Every structure is written in structure tokens, then in C-alpha cells.
Amino acid sequence: MIRLRTRAVPPPPVTPGEVLAETEGLRVRLGAREVLAGVDVTVRAGEVLALVGPNGAGKSTLLSALAADLTAAEGVVRIHGRPAAQWSAPELALRRAVLPQSAALSFPFTVEEVVRMGRAPWAGTPLADQDDMAVAAAMAATEVPAFAVRPFSALSGGERARVALARVLAQRAPLLLLDEPTAALDLKHQELVLRLCRERARAGDAVVVVLHDLGLAAAYAHRVAVLHAGRIAADGPPAEVFDERLLSEVYDQPVEVLPHPRTGAVLVAPRRDL
Amino acid sequence: MRRIRRGPAWLLTIGLVAALLVLVPLAAGIGAYPIPVGDVLSSVQHKAGLGGTELDRVAESVLWNVRFPRIVLALLVGASLGCAGALMQGVFGNPLAEPGTIGVSLGAAVGAVAAIALGLNFLGNWTLPAMAFVAGLCTVLLVYAMSRAGGRTEVVTLILTGIAVNAFCGALVGLFIFLADTAAVNQITFWQLGSLSQATWPKVLAVLPCAAAGLLLAPLYSRRLDLLALGDRPARHLGVDVERLRIVLILVVALLTAAAVSVSGVIGFVGLVVPHLLRMAAGPGHRFLIPGSALGGAVVLLGADLAARTLAAPAELPLGVLTALVGSPFFFWLLRRTRRKQGGWA
Fold this sequence. Notes:
The complex is a heterodimer. In chain A, α4 packs antiparallel against α5. Chain A has helices at residues 59-66, 89-93, 111-117, 131-141, 157-170, 187-202, 214-220, 238-241, 244-251, and strands spanning 19-30, 33-44, 48-52, 74-79, 82-83, 96-99, 175-179, 206-210, 223-228, 231-236, 255-259, 266-270. By secondary structure, chain A is an alpha/beta fold. Chain A has 9 helices and 12 strands. In chain A, a hairpin with a 6-residue loop joins β11 and β12. Chain B is an all-alpha fold. Chain B has one domain (7-342): ABC transporter involved in vitamin B12 uptake, BtuC, CATH 1.10.3470. Chain B is 74% helix and 1% strand. Chain B has 14 helices and 2 strands. Chain B has a two-stranded antiparallel ribbon with strand order 1-2. The two termini of chain B are 33 Å apart. Mean pLDDT of chain B is 86; it is low at 1-5. The interface between A and B is medium-sized, with 33 and 28 residues. Chain B: Belongs to the binding-protein-dependent transport system permease family. FecCD subfamily. Chain B: Pfam families: FecCD. Chain B: It is a multi-pass membrane protein. Chain B: It comes from Streptomyces spinoverrucosus.
């Protein structure tokens, strides 16, 4: 069959600080509810941006908007400088990788096959010969090679989450959008995943990560955006944003922010009077 | 997706091709007028202009006007059914999807029955496949629209939709039979049992375009079908234009189902059993599964047709009855297994 579509062109290398995604006055409605009510956010290369906030604040919706999954009711989403709707699916796949909140699979593909699916966007491009290397590196980084040949469906929740992350890393897109990558993970692997985010940022990628654990956000994010009822309540470095009054109000729960006794890093904990 | 499990996939391909090479001359030789396999090969050689000798007039006629068209039809129908099953399971992300179980075959049958009952002939020889295609396409679109919710197709919804659609299409078939005259009723009844016994070269030509188009298009989408297993959104994140892919594949499924149904009525379960067995043996990668299911379907249907016309000779078992007898228990087992894996239907 003759292919009428032209091949998607891989993006040029990004420079540190370059804006890879941004929203301007973004409003999104899901049904009757306005989930995002005017959000301005900028995602830069070389930076880990954490999206935090209570349940239903709009974190996942904002992430979906940055992934070009949603149509805005108002405002604009730009990815690599171009409005999201103007990119084709294959072009987007070379520019952003997305980790969904829960990983499902309808057929029993093996772990390695699943990770290799992350290379699909590169088929037919000159970078396709990096496939094996990218898959191996992503699997090693997420510590999944031990069950490479097992079917994905036979894994535990935490193992699945790491395999899904490996698939996203293997895609090697300059913009990484991760929706609660740590939700199913134990302490060690939570740290591992956020260290990986930092590594990717240091290598020049932009990483947006939805987190519930404010301690992780404080420790690993360069910048934190606090969402509250569909708006950005605060946006800046963790040390500035994590303010007791602001967090207590946003979460409707008294929160303490204290310096770590040994390192002085920001610690966030709910205030408990037991 | 590459290189992994090449072993089983290659072995299966070789095994299936070998089975085909054995079955075809056997099926050509066995029957009410037996022709030794050596004579079959010799006659084929002669036709191809590679030596060999012509058989006597009767044998030559039985071989080329009765047996071979029937074999070619069995291969086309089997390949179409197997391939359609594999495609449909991929599109719905559901191992229980099959043209028969979800009502698409019977939907296509409505078109074919209408063509027979109303004596339609606007496209000549191609009228029946064309009507089956249009009706089948409408049915797939209907099932698709009714059984999807929130970007997913749940097993229960799919099967129940299939029951509803099968009931409705069954009623329509009944209605057309009621409206038809006696000659047409006989033709419909015979056709409905799913037999290949009236195979002729014009019949082969009538379904060839549908079947060939479907079989050639299907493998182009295997890599994208693999990605679809991750779900709609993740597939889109990996560059698949999901909506377009689904529309195209639904068209292909309708083509293949129409080809199969317009020849031989509803032959169930081939599209369910063949892809499933291959997936268990060689993994779920569609690059093997789609051509493999076409090949496997061809082998199974040729074998089934051979059994149908020899087991109760000189009478002939209806092919559709035979495949349903073997296929239904398998479907039941599959249902139990899927249920167990999901921990009940909730």
C-alpha cells in the first residue's frame, strides 16, 4: 500500500531551559465540571516539575492536557512551541512520553516486549538502530531485567509500574509526563524512580511528575506547582512553595514544614496531635 | 516485539505450511470418486506445463471442476475467518471477540439472505458478497458502538451485545426466509448450514476480491495492534492514530467476514479457536498472529471440510455444524478461564 503520510521528523536536540510545553489560561471541562479553571504553567528542559495538590485538584487533567490528550475549552496548550492540536500522533510520540496512572495490557506480552513497544515511534527513523540499547538501558535503570521474559500480566502491581516506566524511558522523548509513578512502589523504588527523573533532567529532558508524597516532591523537584480546585495556588522551588499556611489551606489539613535535623532539607508532615 | 519467541513462531509456520501441503493433495484425492495422490500431482504438473500426464476425462473433471474449487474456497474461507478473528480480538483488546460470537457473521448473513430472498442481482456474481459486506459492516459498527464504554470493551458487555445482535439478526434472517419463495428458501437453508459442497470457480471468483483485500491489508497493521494492547491512550502516546486504526480494521474485518459468510453461511468458532491456540503457543505478537491465524484457519477449515464430507459418506455433514460441535466446548472453556483470571464478572 502506498503510504500517503510522510514520516514524522524527529525533533532537534533541546537546549537547557528551553520551554518544551506550556499552557496559557487553560480551561478544561469534563462533563459539567470545570476541572481546570485558568492554568498557566511552563515546562522547561533540564527541570523536574512536580504537580501536587489534593484529590480532584486537576493534576492528572493538567498532565493529560500537556500530553495533548484533551481539548481545551479555553486557552492554549503548546508542545515544543506549537499548539498541541497541530501535531500528528506520530510527531507527538517523538516529543513526549506519557506514563499513565495504571498500566493495563489486554494480551500476555512479556516484559521485554512491553518495554520494546516504547520504541515504536522510532521505527523507520535513523535512530531505530538504538532500539536494543534503549530497551536494555531502560530495563536496567528500572531494575526489571530479572523478569524480562515473564508475561506482564503475571507481575505484581509494583513490578508492573516499573515496567511501564521502563517503556516510557525507552521512548527517549525529551518531554516526560509521569502520572503518579510512585503510587504502587515501595520506599526503595520510589527513591529510584525520582532519582531517574533527576537523571533525565540532568541529561536535558523536561520531566513533569504528579506526586502525592510532598516529601518526595520537596527532595527531588526543581520546581513544584501546587494545584487547588483547578488553579495553580503556588509555583516555584520547593523551599518557597512549601509554606505551612498555604499547604494547610490547600489540603484542608494542618501541615508542618520543618528543616531536616541533619541535612536542612525541607520536610513536610501533617500536624498530628495524638 | 522482534526476535523474541522466534522459535515457536517459525516452527508453527513450518508446521502449518507442511500440513497444508499434505492436506491439499489428500483432499483432492479423497471422495466418492477416489483419485490416487500420485495422479493428482501428475495432473497438476500437466496443467502447469511441467510434464506429468492428463487423467481420463471423468477424473480430470472431478479434480478441476469439483475438488479444486472446493479446496480453494475452503482455504479462502478458513484464512478469512482465522484472520478476522485475530484482528477482531486485537481491535477489541478482548480474547473472546470473534465474528461469530459477537454477531457480525450473522449480520453479514442478513445481507446475504436478503440478496437470495429478494432475488437481487445488481452486481451479478458479486451481489452476494457485496450485500454481506455492507450488512456485516453495519453490524460491526453497531456492536462496536454499543459495547464500548470509556475506551474499553468489557467481556460481559461484548458478549451480551453479541447475544442481542445475534437475536436481532436471527429475526431478520427469519423474516427474509418468510418472505422468500420455495426455491430461495431451499437455497438459504442449504447455505445457512455452512457447506462448501456447491463450490465452483465462479464462486471462488466472487469472494476472491473481498478475501484477498482483507488478507493483504491485515498484516500491515500488526505492529499497531500490538501497541493497542496497552489501551487507547498509551497507544496514541506511542504515535498510533487510534480512531483511524479502528475504523480501517473494522472495514477489514467486515471484508473478511463477508467473504467467508457469503460462501458458506455462518461457520463459527474458527476465528476464535485458531488465534487463541496460536497465541498460547507463540505469544500474542500480531506480526506472527495475523498471518499465522490466516494460515491456521485455512488448514483447520480444509481439514474440517474433508472430515465433513468423508465421516458420514456418502452423506455430507454440514461444515458449520461440525465446527460448532468442536468449537463451542472450547469457547465455554475459554469463558471459564477468562472469568477465573478476572475473578468473576462483578
